[in-house]
């Protein structure tokens, strides 16, 4: 989704770029004050089609359900979560997941 350039990019790549820019900014601020900042970014990618949830990062057709966690709010147990450390890794996952879309 939105693997174009500039204004042609979709909302997902732009949002993820903003996340990595914020991490870099905060990491720099932490280093300036002699602290270390450890961050873990996990990517999931799902599609809801005909009221069914599809994990776009998994070949499995498991029956996924939205659950409400008292602290975290809505979440999907068993949804694939892939750790990433760069925008390139995110884009690879978005490209992979887009190929698995039903619509």
UniProtKB/TrEMBL annotation:
A single GO molecular function term of this UniProt record: microtubule binding
Domain Kinesin motor: 1-103
Segment forming the signal sequence: none
Any GO BP: microtubule-based movement
InterPro entries: Kinesin_motor_dom (IPR001752), Kinesin_motor_dom_sf (IPR036961), P-loop_NTPase (IPR027417)
PROSITE patterns: KINESIN_MOTOR_2
Gene3D superfamilies per the UniProt record, alphabetical: Kinesin motor domain
Family: Belongs to the TRAFAC class myosin-kinesin ATPase superfamily. Kinesin family.
Name of the protein this chain belongs to: Kinesin motor domain-containing protein
């Amino acid at each position: 989704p939105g693997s174009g350039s500039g204004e042609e990019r979709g909302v997902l790549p732009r949002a993820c770029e903003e996340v990595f820019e914020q991490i870099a900014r905060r990491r720099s601020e932490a280093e300036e004050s002699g602290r270390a900042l450890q961050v873990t970014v996990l990517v999931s990618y799902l599609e809801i089609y005909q009221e069914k949830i599809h994990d776009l990062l998994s070949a499995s057709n498991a029956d996924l359900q939205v659950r409400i966690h008292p602290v975290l709010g809505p979440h999907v147990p068993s949804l694939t979560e892939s750790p990433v450390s760069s925008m390139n890794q995110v884009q690879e996952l978005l490209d992979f997941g887009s190929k698995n879309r039903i619509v």
